[in-house]
Amino acid sequence: VKKSLVKMLTDSLNRRTPDCLMLILTFLRKLSIFDENKDLMASNDVNTIFHLAKFVPCSHDKITQQVLRLLFNLSFDKSCRTKMVEVGFLPKLVDLLKKAPFRAKTIRVLYHLSADDTTKFLFSKTEAVPIVMQLVINFPQDTVAKELAALAVNMSLDAACAEQMTEHRGLTHLMGRVGDFGDVLICKVVRNISQWTFGEQRMITHATEHRELIKDQRRRIKRAERAARKGDTPEEDESGREDSDNEDDEEGLPVVHSYQQRRLWGEHVGHILKMAMDCESQEQNLLVELLGTLGNFTEQDLPKGTKWHSLIKEYNLCSFIGKLLVPGMSQNDVVLECCILVGQMCCCPKSAVQIASSSLIRALHELWSDNDAEILLQLLTCYHRFLHFDETREELLYSTEAMADISDCVGRKHRGTREVAEKCLEMVLEHDRNEDGEIGELGAQVRRRRFMAHNKEWMEEVGSTGDRQDRVYRHGAYDSDDDEMGDFKYSDKESESDESDGGEEGGRAMFRSNGQKINVDTSGLSSGVEDSGDGSRGEYDGGWGQ
Q1: Where is this chain compositionally biased, Acidic residues type (predicted)?
Q2: Is 507 exposed, middle or buried, given 0-12, 13-18 or 19+ CB atoms closer than 10 A?
């Protein structure tokens, strides 16, 4: 660096003598091992990468080999990879894949380039996907070379590349290799493609919901305008106007396309299920990918006329997944994918009945632990699915201690965990209602635990003032034998608070502690839920977003 050797060698790349160029390129390759030289080669002052572009391709094969080796050394650095893409190396390297002598080194460089999310989509603009697919499908050995398979995995993470991989029955050929040789990396490519189709369906669902929201807002505005002109309320103006509103509301709305890959997976679902059930204990990595692929299937991906409840019965999936969930039998990755799959299976009342009648819900609850945040989040997502159906809801709430576990998650730091836990509690409050609209025992428990979560700091502060055995608080009853409730006493009856020596007036509450009254400001407290008393759900006003 101090002697400007890199700059002098870069300037010498204009020579035309092959032997001299070979010597210069070899020298640069050895210098590129050191960070200082590598940074200098990527800088605008020297710009070695720009000068290398003219040698790819060139008529001298050995020079091309040396350039590829130099590019491979430089491609470990993100700034160098960005520079390679900027000077147009990507289409040139893809063309080199067609030439066998350069293929191995080119694949390694392309693999590094595909590691950047900003570069993945550029592969779909070249011939990279069809060439790589042909190399994978026609690979002579049972297991595809790691560099080639890793390049295919990275490309399949991009939506455009994944779509190209499914063309010309590409998915069928990939499934054939997985079924014949059990190649884990190729199965990971299949899983990434299933992730793409799952993402497409979610985008369509969100777009449809957004479209309906716009239509509803337009209808409300039009009704309000008509009511203002006539002097009526919007409710009185609704009759006889629905058809005309629907016709007018279609104008200018965003177009929502239908799901184009509806039967892409139909012929492969049964094959994937059989492979997963036939996996031995030594093939845990393959089982992870197969279960992950199944967890991305919706009912639109299943064979025509087939639903999840029929697959559960045909393949006895509840028993199969129950064995995998036995503690100590499977890796954490397998357990995680099982949780996702169970949540995906519980999508209709018939499948909910099958899951509730099995031991799956109790087996999932036994997995509850603070050690793995991912498993915890997926368990909460499963619980949320279970709460949508009567059978699974009763099994979850009354046969396990899931209610306490869900409530404990409300105060966690992880945002996603808090969100799903709050959604689960909202479902409990929505369904646990008496005929008169009053909340039931579980709903009252939800309110108490929410109060504990949202006012934890206040309760700790009050607890530090003295003995709390005889304190009375107006919002809820905390039994002394409940560890989470401490020594606080709660009652819904005003008479109880009146009969005690504590009371409340003007946003302040009085508590008894060791025979003395303590005035505490309660104006900033949150009950965690607002209940109108008429059976309608209150809105949560906590501190979580999204």
Answers
A1: 234-252, 495-504
A2: exposed
Partnered with residue 382 across adjacent β-strands are none
Residue 220, C-beta contacts closer than 8 angstroms, at least 6 positions apart: 234
Sign of the torsion formed by the C-alpha atoms of 7, 10, 12 and 14: negative
Tokens for 267, please give them.
């012929």
Q: Running DSSP on this structure, what letter comes out for residue 515?
A: T
Q: Which two tokens stand for residue 40?
A: 């200098």
Report, as an integer, the average pLDDT of 169-183.
Answer: 94
Helix, strand, coil percent values for the chain (each to nearest 5): 60, 5, 35
Residue with tokens 């104008």: 251
Nearest Cα neighbor of 300 from 387, 176, 384, 200 is: 200
Say how many CA atoms lie within 13 Å of 304 toward its Cβ: 3
SS3 for 403?
A: helix
Under 8 Å between Cβ of 296 and 197:
yes
**d(C-alpha 228, C-alpha 232), whole Å:** 7
DSSP for residue 158: S
Q: Which of 273, 275, 265 is nearest to 299 (CA)?
A: 265
* b/e code 304-333 from CB counts within 10 Å (16+ = b): eeeebbebbeeeebbeebbebbeeeebeeb
Contacts for 276 with CB less than 8 Å, ≥ 6 apart: 287, 290, 291, 294, 320
Phi then psi dihedrals of residue 280, to 5 deg = -90, 175
The yes-or-no verdict on residue 411 having pLDDT over 50 is yes
> Rounded CA gap, 364 and 209, in Å?
32
**Helix (H) or strand (E) run with residue 429 in it:** helix 415-431
**Nearest in space to 47 (alpha carbons), one of 6, 78, 14:** 6
Q: Are the C-beta atoms of residues 215 and 253 closer than 8 Å to each other? A: yes
Task: Give the C-alpha separation, 281 to 331, whole Å.
Answer: 10
Q: Tens digit of pLDDT for each residue in 38-92? A: 999 988 888 899 999 999 988 899 999 999 999 999 999 999 999 999 999 999 9
Q: What angle (nearest 5°) sits at the alpha carbon of residue 202, between those of residues 198 and 208? A: 145
Q: How many other C-beta atoms lie within 10 A of the C-beta of residue 337?
A: 26
Asked whether 333 and 371 are in contact (CB, 8 A), the reply is: no
Q: Which pairs with CB-CB distance under 8 Å and at least 24 residues apart come from 217-222?
A: 218/245, 218/248, 218/249, 219/245, 219/249, 222/248
Q: Which amino acid is at 498?
A: D
